[in-house]
UniProtKB/TrEMBL annotation:
GO CC annotations on file: aminoacyl-tRNA synthetase multienzyme complex; cytosol
Family: Belongs to the class-II aminoacyl-tRNA synthetase family. Type 2 subfamily.
NCBIfam families the UniProt entry points to: aspS_nondisc
Residue ranges occupied by any Aminoacyl-transfer RNA synthetases class-II family profile domain in the UniProt entry: 158-453
Lineage: Eukaryota, Metazoa, Ecdysozoa, Nematoda, Chromadorea
A single GO BP: aspartyl-tRNA aminoacylation
Top-level taxon of origin: Eukaryota
Species of origin: Meloidogyne javanica (Root-knot nematode worm)
Broad enzyme group: ligase
InterPro entries per UniProt: Aa-tRNA-synt_II, aa-tRNA-synth_II, aa-tRNA-synth_II/BPL/LPL, Asp-tRNA_synthase_2, Asp/Asn-tRNA-synth_IIb, BtpA, NA-bd_OB-fold
Protein name, UniProt field: Aspartate--tRNA ligase, cytoplasmic
Keyword presence, Transmembrane: no
Compartments, record wording: Cytoplasm
Entry-linked PROSITE patterns: AA_TRNA_LIGASE_II (PS50862)
């Protein structure tokens, strides 16, 4: 249809568009941009006819663009005037406006009989109870995939998928990661030969990559430091559950670390929380479109990721009355149950399960140095569904060879992979020890050495907090170091000390602002005792002469519902020495602290200002 004909007609069919004319004078608007503020404006719109109905001499047509609609499947151009509706149109996303059509031209006509109706394909998934309404079965959807992809739900899912990849890529780029592209046709099975597709490769055989894992590790050995990849993953698994797919898009990353694999674990966990927040902030219409067809409770998560030890998860399941072995992998029902238990206890749908049994992990997973039954590996879950698996990789060629033999892997087929670690490779997929700054308060009111005005004490807390925050430390511990001589035990600490310690912490939190949830804040109220008492208590654990308070303290924390407050143990008290030195080393002391349910460990030097021993730190690893 020529421009002149189009101007003279109010309706009709376009000829096949072969780019004959540009029509630069016609400007189209998106449905999502139409609102009551445009009342009276004349616009052009290209959309699909979603639905139509007659009423008297009038015809009402509902148009659709992706997930948005406004009052068949033919693609049309519409010219009309925007008008406010006298009452909301509940069946449309733009419920407060309508278009008084002046012109309508068919761009591409649809066949009159459709194999499925959009209304049926977007009906909420409520199982067998459909009230007699038509149900579009999966086979019908797959046989007519183009129509199925036009539904608002499918449009929203693909948009959310793209947003996840974009957020994954942009957040890792900001953290200094490099994107790499790994081979998808490989000479050996990725993880030991199971669940892989074998393909003919000229005169031999090859496999479709089950994972980019080995190539990511080789990149780390080549000093790439931090890498990620987004690409196809192939699994020869029967697709008889929603969790097993023969092909999907995987988001993988690998990174080197200095001392501990938790750096990688926390990096990934924080990345996931950032992606969740990004989706909830910027893609709420898409999320609601999916929830409309697949009803579910809103997804909840904490800004600071929840980390649970595998052994703790086993205990939670046993308390709930189910059988779960210490070294067994979690079954799907048990994963689901754990997700419900975590939500009930911790108000989060996202959590990290750390320290998996070694027997259920791939050959390249680093064993736990403190307990050979477990490994330095973790999974991340959403509502009891595993969405990510990670671990510290074995970077020593001798240990890697031993692990491969245990898994009955043909060493010749992974020779190039093992050899890559012979020339020195940094430990990877791990983390760094937390860097904690100390704020030593001047003597507080009520103590013999108190002279500094309280206003100056507050200023000192504010200034030192700002310094530590700018230095990008992981946390701060506030301590009443100068309240000499120290009082012994809680019953001797007066309310004036408690109130000024609280005031100091509040000032610290005010400086931290919106970073407080990612910044550790510790409090130590000194209950002084003599050097002998401290040495005996540390050397003899909680049953020592000092009457250690772990038992009472943990029970009190549970009673008042303060499990979010961590209890950190100083396992090498400065200004003193252990009376038992030959029988208990630093690693055994750390094990004892963990056994008695410490949430974390502090390693200090022998005196204030003296750095911790590197050898002691290696012993803790």
């Amino acid at each position: 249809m020529s421009s002149s004909n189009q101007q003279n007609l109010s309706f009709g069919n376009y000829p096949i568009m072969q780019s004959k004319e540009k029509h630069e004078d016609i400007k189209f608007i998106n449905i999502q941009d139409i609102g009551a503020e445009l009342d009276g404006e004349e616009i052009w719109l290209r959309a699909r006819i979603h639905d139509s109905r007659g009423k008297g001499k009038n015809c009402f047509i509902c148009f659709r663009q992706r997930i948005y609609s406004v009052q068949g499947e033919s693609l049309v151009d519409v010219f009309g005037q925007i008008s406010k509706t006298p009452s909301p149109v509940s069946s449309c996303t733009q419920s407060d406006v309508e278009i008084k059509i002046q012109k309508l031209f068919i761009v591409s006509a649809s066949e009159p009989r459709l194999p499925l109706q959009m209304e049926d394909a977007t009906r909420p998934d409520i199982g067998e109870e459909t009230g007699g309404l038509a149900v579009v079965k999966l086979d019908t959807r797959l046989d007519n995939r183009v129509l199925d992809l036009r539904t608002p739900t499918s449009q929203a899912i693909f948009k959310l998928q793209a947003a996840i990849c974009e957020a994954f890529r942009s957040n890792l780029n900001k953290r200094g990661f490099i994107e790499i592209h790994t081979p998808k046709i490989i000479s050996a099975a990725s993880e030991g030969g199971a669940n892989v597709f074998e393909v003919s490769y000229f005169k031999g055989s090859a496999y479709l990559a089950q994972s980019p894992q080995l190539y990511k590790q080789m990149a780390i050995a080549a000093d790439f430091d931090k890498v990620y990849t987004i690409g196809a993953v192939f699994r020869a698994e029967d697709s008889n559950t929603h969790r097993h797919m023969t092909e999907f898009v995987g988001l993988d990353l690998e990174m080197a670390f200095k001392f501990h694999y938790h750096e990688a674990m926390l990096t990934v966990a924080e990345l996931m929380c950032e992606i969740f927040a990004h989706l909830q902030k910027n893609f709420q219409p898409e999320i609601e479109a999916v929830r409309k067809q697949y009803p579910s409770e809103p997804f909840i998560f904490t800004e600071k990721p929840l980390i649970i030890q595998y052994s703790q998860a086993v205990s939670m399941l046993r308390e709930a009355g189910v059988e779960q072995g210490d070294e067994e992998d979690l079954s799907t029902p048990n994963e689901k149950l754990l997700g419900r238990l975590v939500r009930e206890r911790h108000s989060t749908d996202f959590y990290v399960l750390d320290k998996f049994p070694l027997a259920v992990r791939p050959f390249y997973t680093m064993p736990d140095p403190l307990d050979e039954r477990y490994s330095n590996s973790y999974d991340m879950f959403m509502r009891g569904e595993e969405i990510l698996s990670g671990a510290q990789r074995v970077h020593d060629p001798i240990l890697l060879t031993e692990r491969a033999k245990i898994h009955n892997i043909d060493l010749e087929k992974i020779r190039a992979y093992i050899d890559a670690f012979k020339y020195g490779c940094p430990p990877h997929a791990g983390g760094h020890p937390l860097l904690i700054g100390m704020i030593h308060l001047p003597a507080l009111p009520g103590t013999p050495k108190h002279v500094m005005p309280v206003e100056q004490i507050v200023e000192k807390v504010q200034k030192e907090t700002e310094i530590y925050l700018k230095s990008e430390l992981d946390g701060i511990i506030i301590e009443n170091m100068h309240d000499l001589p120290y009082q012994k035990f809680d019953e001797n600490i007066g309310p004036e000390i408690c109130s000024w310690m609280t005031k100091s912490c509040l000032e610290c939190l005010n400086i931290l602002g919106n970073k407080r949830n990612k910044f550790l804040l510790g409090i130590q109220v000194l209950a002084g005792a003599n050097k002998t008492a401290i040495a005996v208590a540390h050397a003899s654990a909680d049953e020592g002469w000092m009457d250690g308070c772990a038992g009472n303290l943990l029970r009190y924390r549970k009673m008042i519902g303060a499990e979010d407050i961590g209890i950190i143990v100083d396992i090498k008290k400065k200004h003193c020495s252990h009376s038992i030195t030959k029988d208990i080393n630093i690693a055994q002391t750390a094990n004892a602290a963990e056994f008695f349910l410490a949430d974390g460990i502090i390693l200090t030097g022998n005196s204030t200002g003296q750095e911790a021993s590197v050898l002691d730190l290696e012993g803790l690893k």
